[in-house]
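Methods — Computational structure assignment.
A single polypeptide chain was analysed. Its primary sequence is given first, followed by the predicted tertiary structure written as structure tokens.
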Amino acid sequence: MTVKRCSTCSRFAEYEDDDSFCLACGHDSLEAECACGRSFGYAPGENGHELHCPRCGRRLRGRADGVD
């Protein structure tokens, strides 16, 4: 099992390697790692509204930049 993130709804879950559709919203936009290459294994247990990649700082969950 691999932790993947849906780039549509920003939810994290464990998936089999070949899975490509999100459990929550059904879109085929699953990512197994951040753009910097850091895997998402740390993310499912993290609480809070915002979550950032610990390697590059990219916002993974929360409000989009520039939105009030």
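Note: The beta strands are 2-6, 12-15, 30-31, 51-52, 59-61.
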